[in-house]
Each structure stands twice: as C-alpha cells, then as structure tokens.
Amino acid sequence: MHRSRAIALLFTAVVLCLSSGVVAGATGVVVLPHAGVLNLDNGELAWLSDPSGELALADVQRADAGGRFTPLYGSLTRGYTTDVHWLRLQVDNRGESARYYLELMPPFLDDLQLYEVLPDGSVRRHLDGDRSRVSQRDFHLPSPLFRLELPPGRTTLYLRVQTTSSSVVLATFFDAPSLQQRLTTQGVLYGAYFGVLGVVLLLNLINWRLLGDPTFGIYASYLVAQLAYFAASYGIVTQYFFPELPVVGDRLVGISLGGMVVTGLLFFQRLLGIDRSRAVVVATVFGVSRVVAALLIVAAFTDYYQRLAALMQLCLIACGLVSIPQLFRQRHGTPEQRIAAAAFALFMVPVLFGALAFAGLIGASTRTLFAAQVANVLHVWLLHFAIARRVRDADLAREESRREAEMARVSAEQERQRNDEQSRLLSMITHEVRTPVAVIRSAVQSLRLVDPQAAPERATRYDRIDRSARRMNMLLELVAAADRLREMHDGAVQRTDLRVLTQRALLDIDPDQQARITLQPGLPGLYVNANPDMLQVALLNLLDNALKYSPPGSPVIVRIEAAPGGLVRWSADDQGPGIPAADRPVLFDKYWRGGERQGVPGLGLGLYIVRGIVEGAGGNVALDDLPGGGSRFTCTFPAA
C-alpha cells in the first residue's frame, strides 16, 4: 500500500513538473546588470513567422518597427512546420560593458543564426545548430550557446530558427558564474545518465547471453537506441566524433529515435503481456506506431522526415492514451508486472508531454526536459528491478527443473533396477522350467511310441499334452526373446510368405480355438524380409490375444493384403471390449498386463515382444477401434 502511494506521489510530481506553466506579465526587456539564470519564458521574447524563409535582417528590422512581432509568453512551440521563425530579445545594459551568454534548447535545432544589433547600429553574427560545423560555433559544446559582448545601452538580438525537427525553442540567459555552474552540473548529469544506462545495458547483455531470453535482447537494443538518441540529439555525437560532419549526428537523431520507439514499444508490449487476444486496441496502436517508427528510420535520409516525425508524435500520444486502462489492470498482476507498469508509466508521461509539446499542442519549458531525463533514469532503474525479478524467477525455475530432472533420473534408475531384477527372476524361472517341459514332451513321445494304436480319447489327450508343452515352451521363448530383441534379427532373415507363416502359426493353436479364426482370402505371394521363426512368435501372440480377450465363440478375422507405397499389411480383428484410452500409451511397454483386470493370466511381455519383432523387420504395429466394437491390431511391413 505504501509502495502504491509512493509511486502515485512520484507520478504526480513528474506530471506537475512537466505541465508547470509560466505566469505572464513581464516587461519584455532584459535589464542589466543581471546576476544568475533567467529563463526567457515570461514575455521577454517576441516572435515572427517567416513562411517563405526569405526575410533578411533588414526585412525583419522593418517588420519589428512596424509592430509585427508578437510577444511570446512561454516557449516557442510551433510543432512540425517548414516555416522559419524569428525571435527578438531586447537587452538594456545600464552599467558597463559585460559578457553574458544565451543558451538555446533543445539541442537538435538545425540552423540557428543570431544577430546582435548593437546600440551604435553595428551587427555581430553568430552561427550554431546541429547542422553547423563545430568550428563555426562560439563554443564547442553540445547545446547551442552564444557569447554576448553587451555594451552600455540597448542591444537587440534577432534569432533566426530553421529546423526539420519540431520548432520548439527554449531560451535561457546566463551570467558567467551561473554558466560555469550550469556546465559543471550538466557534465555530472550527463555522466550519471550515461553511467546508469551503460551499467543496465551491460547487465542485460550478460543476462541475455546466459539465459537466452529474447526479452533481455530487446531491452538491450532499446537501451542502445536510447543512448544513441541522447548522444545525437544533445549534440554529443557531433561534438566528439564528427565535428566537421554535423549531418551525421543530425541523421542519427532520426535513426535512433525510430529505433528507440520500435524496441521500446516492443519491449513493453512483451513485458506487460499485451497481445491481440486480450488487448486488441492497445496491441494494434502499438503495432502501427512501430511501423511508423521503422519508416522514420528510413525517412531520416529523405525529405519526408518532418512529416513522419509529426505522425510518430501523434502515434506516441495514442499509445499513452490507450495504455491507461492496461496500466490500471496491471496493479492486480504479479510484482514483476506491477513494477513494469510503473516503469512504463514513468516512460510514457514524459513521452506524452514531449509529444504534445513537439506537436505544438502544449507549451514546453526547461523543467519539461529535466523532468523527462529524471523520469527516464527512474524508469530504467524500475525496469532493471522488474527484469532482475525475472532473472530470479528464471533461476528458481532452472533449479526446480534441475531437481525434477534429478528425481526423474533417480526414478528411471530405480525402474531399471526393478526391470533388471524381474528379468533375472524370469530368466531363473525359465532355466528351471525348461527341464520339466522337456521331460513332459519326451514322455508324450514315449507314450505315442508304446501306444501306437491308442484309442481316440487317449490320442486326443496326448495331443493336448503336447500342445500345452509347446505353449509352455513358447512362453519360455518369449522370456528369452525379451532380453535379446536387439540381437534376434541378426539371425536367419529371409524372404517370407506372410500367408504361409500365418497358416503355420495356426497349427500351434488349440484345435477348438482354431475354428474361431478365419483367414480371409487375399492375394498370394505377399512376402516380407524377416526372421520367420521370430515373426511367427509375434503373429501367434497377436492371435492368442485376440482369442483370449474376445467373448467365447466369437470370431477372429485375419487379413493379409497389399497396401499403397509398396507395403504389406497383416491385421487381426476381434470382438473384445477394446483397449481403454488411458492404457494405450503403455500398451506395448514391457511387463504391462491389461488383462489383469479381467482375470486373464499373462507375463506382460507379449505385445512388447510383438512390437520389437515387427519393428526389427522394418515394420510397425498399430491398434485401431472397430466401428461395431472390438479392436484391430495391424502390422505393416515393407514388401520384399
């Protein structure tokens, strides 16, 4: 609650600083000697519009004598226009000759020409602006600054302003000590500003490299564009890097401004979770604004920059207005979202007032520029805290993932150990049971030898004992095959007739059950490449399952047919209850026994073996539901 109040008070302070106006009612003349700093926004200036841009100093002086200059209360804010503007300042020096200084803001004004009309009628001319070479200026400083040598009497200053940016002019009058203090403070603030943004940029680049989250990359790009815009618009690029090529810094203003808007809106949209499914209007306005900003980057090299810059200011105003409901909704979000919303508000408040001022809709002041810089630093730090929370949450998520992975590894190891124990147990049982099964089969063979003319009842009994012993032997083979699926196809792989192999598998089924199986007629000679003994085991298991899980006496239909793409398809249809959807993901897993719920015995290896054998032959096995009930197991192989 206290945090919300603090943020609200901070917003209020910023708004008051940005919107504070100037009370009119000054003399219209600066009287010297004057100590300290004088903001020329209280009627000291007068202005004249020059739409053609062809007025010379003499023309302007005649217009001034004819009363065509208009007193200016506040700053000059004419928006994006191609008109040239003239400002007039009268200075009445009632003492000795003195040196004063006139500073103009913002620094991105293109062409500034200052004419000093001295009391004796002589004229001094000064050049400045971000399109003038540093060597032509009175001072090698980022902001336009003029040195004024004012003799006793009245000196009239005429300032010609021409710019492709917004026609906003803020003028400040200094004496020498105040200027020195101003420059010192300005240097400290510039250093702090670049230092804060540089540190935050470095931290985000590190996080982007370590975490790979594109949000950090987008934010880092936004900070780079912001640093470039500040350095270019405040004349630092021209002063230190291209003193004799001011056009480079001028172009960079438009490029970095467009880049800052594109990356800034993209970053905030991502961080605040603004998407078209929940905030159509906001997402649309943000998207259109990014497109206009991208066009502005290209237009920085053309004559269309001024028009697009004006359009972009309107887009920024729209972004600020449509974002208000979204920011109110964020107060119920996560702490990260609330911090991001506060940072976005600190970002949008100066942007909104700046856009209104640059569009010529409201006045501007030096307090506006200062408050914008303060708000900018604050919103960068708030965003850093919001992203720091994201880093912390990412670390916690990674730690949780690591713990889950370790638990999964331990669980998998335990499962592997259980499977190994089951395999060893089954292998031991298999070894112990083989000898009794062999004895039973030998005994049956001996009985047939000593009783060659056995009565039908005894012959049938001998057959059932032999089939049961063979079935027991097949189960033993299944257990052995489960442990050698990878090697079993290295044996006798040959071209095998599926129909012949199916008929051979039917001979191992009890005659009472054989009658339930119908082998549909199909094309003869459908061959596959496989180990016939192992493939017979697979087909026999599928037939055995179809018989076991179907109602007694119900038919099982077997089809062998050619399939498109050079394939051969083998399928078995039953009329059982089907396989529940929950069991299908584990249907072919080792030791899974779906029949336990129905009291049907089994080892849980049959379908596991079937899949291994079929896939080892280059095929696949699938389960489908039949329209009238029941299941269909289908094995598909490449034709040989």
Q: Which descriptor suits the 3D outline?
A: rod-shaped
Average pLDDT works out at 81
Query: What oligomeric assembly is this protein in?
Result: single chain
Beta-strand portion reads 15-25%
Task: Output the radius of gyration.
Answer: 45 Å
Instruction: Please summarize the sheet with the most strands.
Output: 7 strands, mixed
Which spans of ≥5 residues are poorly predicted at pLDDT below 50? Answer: 1-26, 595-601
Which structural class do the helices and strands define?
alpha+beta
- Indicate the percent of residues in helices: 40-55%
Can you count the helices?
15
The count of DSSP E runs of length 2 or more, i.e. the number of strands, is 19
Please report the distance between the alpha carbons of the first and last residues.
77 Å
Task: Name a few traits of the molecule.
rod-shaped; 7-stranded mixed beta sheet; 5-stranded antiparallel beta sheet; 15 helices; 19 strands
Secondary structure: elements and pairs:
Blueprint (H helix, E strand, L loop, with lengths): L1 H18 L9 E4 L4 E3 L2 E9 L6 H9 L4 E4 L2 E2 L6 E10 L4 E8 L5 E7 L5 E6 L16 E6 L2 E10 L5 E7 L1 H36 L2 H20 L2 H5 L5 H26 L8 H20 L5 H26 L4 H24 L7 H85 L5 H27 L11 E4 H9 L4 H4 L2 E3 L7 E4 L1 H17 L7 E8 L3 E7 L32 H11 L3 E6 L5 E8 L2
Helix pairs in contact: 1-9, 1-10, 3-4, 3-10, 4-6, 6-7, 7-8, 8-9, 9-10, 10-11, 12-14, 14-15
